[in-house]
Amino acid sequence: MSDDPLAAFDPAARAAFTAVAEQLIPAAHGMPSAGEIVGDARLAFVLRARPDLLEPLREALRPGLGADAPSRLATLEREAPELLGVLQQVVVFGYYTDKGVRDLLGYPGQEAKTLYSWKVPDFIEEGLTDQVLARGPVWRDPATGRRAEPA
Fold first, then answer.
1. Over the stretch 19-54, which tens digit does the pLDDT of each residue have?
2. What total of structural domains would you count in the chain?
3. 24 falls within a domain
4. How many angstroms separate the CA atoms of 60 and 4, rounded?
5. Residue 132 lies in a domain
């Protein structure tokens, strides 16, 4: 990959990406849309951190997958769910790694916390993991991008 991962995208691909970002995370409840946030700097940040996503993202943004964002997303869901997953990941990664978005959410980022072996963590005492444990394992099949059902 060159120093500039955005060199892989022509203006039409960038416009398609912005339209998809707007569709996936629209502005709501005082939060900006992903189309507003995930510009060149955020996209380059994501692709430098995850260069493995560059080629699948290029494939997901290629011409002919739909005239607008909803059509492109529907085509990818039907024909290439693994590419849809990459497109969604890049949008989400770019959005939630933005400092302004984290500030609006009141999330400072990951912080080191001291855990003591003799004390039950507050999140356990508060029952924050109870629903997750009761639900059981849920995952996406990496081959298809679809939710896998437990055997």
1. 999 999 999 999 999 999 999 999 999 999 999 999
2. 1
3. yes
4. 19
5. no
Rounded Cα–Cα distance for residues 65 and 67 (Å): 7
pTM for this predicted structure: 0.75
DSSP letter for each residue of the chain: --S-GGGG--HHHHHHHHHHHHHHS--BTTBPPHHHH-SHHHHHHHHHH-GGGHHHHHHHT-TTS-SSHHHHHHHHHHH-HHHHHHHHHHHHHHHHT-HHHHHHHT----------TTS--HHHHTTTTHHHHHH---EE-TTT-SEEPP-
Amino acid type, 119: K
In a domain, 121, yes or no: no
> pLDDT (tens digit, 9 = 90+) per residue, 65-101?
988 999 999 999 999 999 999 999 999 999 999 999 9
Tell me, yes or no, whether 37 lies in a domain: yes
Q: Look up the domain containing 77 and give its range.
A: 5-110
pLDDT of 134 above 70: yes
38 contact partners, CB below 8 Å, separation of at least 6: 17, 18, 21, 46, 90, 91, 94, 95, 98
